[in-house]
Amino acid sequence: MRFGVLGPLAVWKPGGDPVVVPEARVRALLARLLIDPGRVVSADRLVVDLWGDALPANPSGALQTVVSRLRRAIGGGLVAHHPPGYRLNVPLDAVDSGRFTALLGRARREMDPAGRAALLAEALDLWRGDPFAGFADEPFAGSAAAALAEQRLAAWEDYAEARLRLGDHAALAAELRGLVDRNPLRERLRAAHLRALHGAGRTTEALDGYRQLRRLLHDELGLEPAAELAALHQRMLRGEPSTPPSTPPTPLPPPLTELVGRDEAVADLRTLLRTHRLVTLTGPGGVGKTRIALEVARAEHDVCLVELAGLPRETAMDALADVVAAALSIREGSRPRSPADRLVDVLRQRRLLLVLDNCEHVVEAVAALVPRMLRAPDVRVLATSREPLGVSGEHLRELPPLDVPEPGASTADVLRSGAVRLFAARAAAASPGFAVTADNAETVATICRRIDGIPLAIELASARVRVLGTTELAERLHDRFAVLTGGPRDAPPRQRTLRAVLDWSWDLLTAAERAVLRRLAVFADGCTLAAAEAVCSGDDVRSSQVLDLLARLVDRSLVVAAHTADGPRYGMLESVSAYCEQQLDSREHDLLRHAHAAYYTALAEQAAAHLRGPDQQRWLRRLDTESGNLRRALGDDRGAPRLTRALMWYWFLRGRLAEARRATAAAGDTTLAAWHTGFRQLAGEQADSNTALRLHDALTDPRERAMAGWFLGYAATRFGDLPVGETLTRAALAAFEDLGDRWGIAAALTVRALQRHVRGDLGGSMVDAEQSRTLFRETGDRWGQVQAGAVLGRLAEIAGDYSAAAAWHREGVELAEDLALWPDVSMRWSELGRIALLEGDHDRADELHERGRAVAVEHGDLAGQEFAEVGLALSARRRGRYAEAQALLGPWLEWNRTFEADNGAALILAELGFAAEQRGDGDAALKLHTQSLAAARRTGDPRAVALALEGLAGAQLLAGQPRRAKSLLGAAARLRESAGAPLPAGERGDVNRIEAALASSVSTRA
C-alpha cells in the first residue's frame, strides 16, 4: 500500500489502483497519521485534531469508531494501537513525502550536477498539488504542509542551481517564471532565474527582474538585496558570466559508513540553517553530533570544518580565532590587529558555513568568538557541543539517541527501529552473514534499549557480536564498560570506549556537579525536583543549590529534563546512570539508598490518603510515574513493610497483582498477610477460605480489620467462595458503619450488590448499587462509581432496558479511561458487546468485544480477556461457527476450573453444550449441560440454573425425549419468573429453537 500527501490525500494498492477512503473524518485521521508515519500519536492528540472544541460525548469511543472505519478501508494491520495512541504502521518510503525527503537527502550528497539534477527531478515529479490539499487549513496539518511547501521550494532552488551548472539556461528560465511570480521575494529562487535569463542571452529581462526585486524588497520590507544578488547584478551589467568561477569547496572527511536512522534530523538541521545563522547541535557524548553535522554540511557549496576537540581547556578567544583562521587558510596581514578582528574582516567577504565541532570544553571562548564572526552577513555557524553556547541568536537543536523498540514489540516493529537498523548494519560488517531475524529480534532490541540507542555504544556493541553472539552480549551488558571497548583505532581516544566518552564529560564538571550527578543514580526512571533536592543534597551540596546544578547538568547533556503534568522531571540515560553509580563509594551509596526509600515511603503514604476520593486521578498518575522508584524503595528492608502498606490499594486499583503478591508475601504482619491472601485469590490462585476468615478475625485495629474484611470479601466473591465473601462483606459493612466511613460503606454495598445479583435478589442488588453509587459520588471516588455503575448496567440488561445498560457501561468506560483503570475499561467494552449481542448486532458485538480483548491482552488482564473471548464465542456460536466458538471457550473452561469459578464454568459449559447440540452430538450435549447444571447449582444463581435446564431440554429433545425436554423448559421458565429475571428477547434464540423443534416433534408424533 502506498500513500500520497503531496497533493490531495490518496491511497494506492501495490498495483497502483486507487483505494477509496470514505468519510471526511476518517480521511482526516489518515491525514493526521501520515504526518508522522510509523510514529505513535496519542489518543488525546487525535481527538483534539479531529474534533477540535466540538468534542463528542464519548471522545474515546468516537475515536475508536473512526479508527475501525479506517482499518476497514486500508487494512487492519496498518493502523496499530500502541499506548498511548495509534500509529500508521508503514515505512517512510511508502508515503510520497517520505520518498521526497529521501530523494532530497540523496541529491544533496551527490556532487555531480547531472546526478543531482536527476534525483531532484524525480523528487519534484512526486508532487500532484499543494501538500495535504483539503487539510492544510486544519491546525494539525498546517505546519506540516508549510514545511513540505518550503522543502519543495528549496528543492526547486537546488534543482535550478544544478541545471545552471549544466548550462541549461533557456529551458530553465521558462520553467522558473511562474514559480518566481508566486514567490517574488524569495532571493535564492530569484537569483537562479536571473542567472538563467542572463545565461540565455536575455540580460535585459534579467536586469528588469533585479530592479523589480529591489523595489519590492525596499517597499515591503525596507531591505536591500543580499550581497550575492548585488554581485550578480554587477556581473550582468559588465556582461560577465552569471556564475563566477567557483572555488572548490573545503574538503570534508568522506563518510566511511552509511548514516542510519538520521534522515529526519539531517533534513531538520538543513531547514534550520536556511533561516537561522547560528544553530547549535547538542546531545550526550556518542550520540553522533559530528556525523550529523558533517552530513548536513555536505549539501553546502562553501563550508569549513573546524575541529576543536584537541584544544586545551584554557584556550582563549584570540587563540581560537587563530585556529579558525588556519582552517580557512587566512594568512596574518601586515597591520597589527587582533586575530578575532582579522578573522571577521576576511569573513565579511565570504559566503560560508562554519562547522565548529566539539565546543563543550572551550565553550567560553567559542561563545565569545561566534557573535563577532556573525557580524559577517553571509556567514552561518553550525556548532556541535554537549552544552549550549548561551549566546544571543542561538537556535538549539538537541540530537536524541536513536529510537529503540518498545518491550514486546513485534519483529516488524523491531526492524523499523533506527537503533536496530544501525546495529544490524554494523554487526553485519563485523560478522558477515549476521542479520536480525525473528529468533534474535527481541535480544537485539534489548541490547539497543540497554545502551540507550546511543550510536557510538551501538557501534561498539555490534563489533562484539562476532565473538559473543547476541545472547551473550545482552547478558554481559550489566558490566557494559568492560564490554563496550575496542573502538576503531582511527577514532579519537575519547570515542574508543563507552567509559572514555563519559570520562570526557565527567572531567568537565565541578565537584558539586559531580556530587549531584552521581547521586541521581539512586533513582529509577528519573525524579522530580523535590525528590532531587531531598536525596541529592547533603555534605558539600545544599538543597537550595540542587536546582541550579541540575540545570547545568541538563545543559551539559548528562541529565535529561522532561516536562510532565506534575512539573519537571529529571533523569539519565542508563549508561550515564551506570557510570555514575560506579562513582559512589559504599558509604554514600547506603546513605542514598535509605534517603531514597524514606522519601518515597512518605510520598506513598501521602498518596494513599488521596486514592479514595476526588484527587484519585492525580495521585494515581503520580504513583504511575514513580513506579520504578517505588519498586527500588521496596528493596530497603527497614522500610519495606511500611511502604507495602501504603501501596496496597494502589496495586489493587492498577491490577498489579503479581507485584502486590511479591511485596506482601514476605511480611510477618497480619494485615499484610490478609491482603496477600486476597491478592492471591484475585490472581486466580486457590486459597483456603478458612485462612481468609482467620486472618480477618485476628486483626485488632478496627479500620484495618474493616478494610481487610472488605478486600477479602471482594476477592472471595469474584474468584473464591461466595458464602465466605458474604460473611466477610457483612462484617466489613457493619464495621464501616460503626466507624462512620462513608467510602467504606459504599465499597461494601457494591460488593453486596454483586452478591445479591449472583443470588438472584435483583431488587436488593438494585437498592445496594444505587445507594453505593450515591455515596461514591458524594465522596468523589470515580473508581467506586465505575464499580456501582457496572452492577446497575447488568441489572438494566436483565430488565431488558438495553439503552440504560449501554449508558451505564459507556459512563464506566469514560471514567475508567480517565483513571487508566484498564481492567475496568476492558470489562465495560465487553459489557457493551454483550448489549449489542442481545440486540442482534453481531458485527457491532464483535467489534466491542475485540476492543475489550485488546485492552485486556495489552495489560495482561486474564479475567478481562476471558470475558471478551467468551463474548466472541457467544457471537460465533449464534452465527453457526461452532468450531470457532469451541476453540475460544475450551481454554477458558480449564482456566475457570483452576480456581473453582463455578459461575464462569457454568456459562462456558452451557455454550459448549448448545454448540454440541446444534452439531447433532447429543451425547456430548447431554454431558456438558449436566456439568453446567451442577456448576450453576453451586453458584446459587437461578439464571445460571435456568440456562443449564434449557440446555438440557435441547439435549433431551435430541435424544428423543420430548416430554422430558418440555418439563425442563417449564422448570427453567418458572425459575426465571420466581427470580424476577425473565429471559430477555435477545437471549431467547436457543429457547425459541428448542420450542419450535419440540412443537414439530409433537406434531410429527401426533
UniProtKB/TrEMBL annotation:
<dbReference type="Pfam" id="PF03704">
    <property type="entry name" value="BTAD"/>
</dbReference>
<dbReference type="InterPro" id="IPR027417">
    <property type="entry name" value="P-loop_NTPase"/>
</dbReference>
<protein>
    <submittedName>
        <fullName>SARP family transcriptional regulator</fullName>
    </submittedName>
</protein>
<dbReference type="Pfam" id="PF25872">
    <property type="entry name" value="HTH_77"/>
</dbReference>
<dbReference type="InterPro" id="IPR005158">
    <property type="entry name" value="BTAD"/>
</dbReference>
<feature type="DNA-binding region" description="OmpR/PhoB-type">
    <location>
        <begin position="1"/>
        <end position="90"/>
    </location>
</feature>
<dbReference type="InterPro" id="IPR016032">
    <property type="entry name" value="Sig_transdc_resp-reg_C-effctor"/>
</dbReference>
<dbReference type="InterPro" id="IPR036388">
    <property type="entry name" value="WH-like_DNA-bd_sf"/>
</dbReference>
<keyword id="KW-0238">DNA-binding</keyword>
<dbReference type="Pfam" id="PF00486">
    <property type="entry name" value="Trans_reg_C"/>
</dbReference>
<dbReference type="InterPro" id="IPR001867">
    <property type="entry name" value="OmpR/PhoB-type_DNA-bd"/>
</dbReference>
<dbReference type="InterPro" id="IPR058852">
    <property type="entry name" value="HTH_77"/>
</dbReference>
<feature type="domain" description="OmpR/PhoB-type">
    <location>
        <begin position="1"/>
        <end position="90"/>
    </location>
</feature>
<comment type="similarity">
    <text>Belongs to the AfsR/DnrI/RedD regulatory family.</text>
</comment>
<dbReference type="InterPro" id="IPR011990">
    <property type="entry name" value="TPR-like_helical_dom_sf"/>
</dbReference>
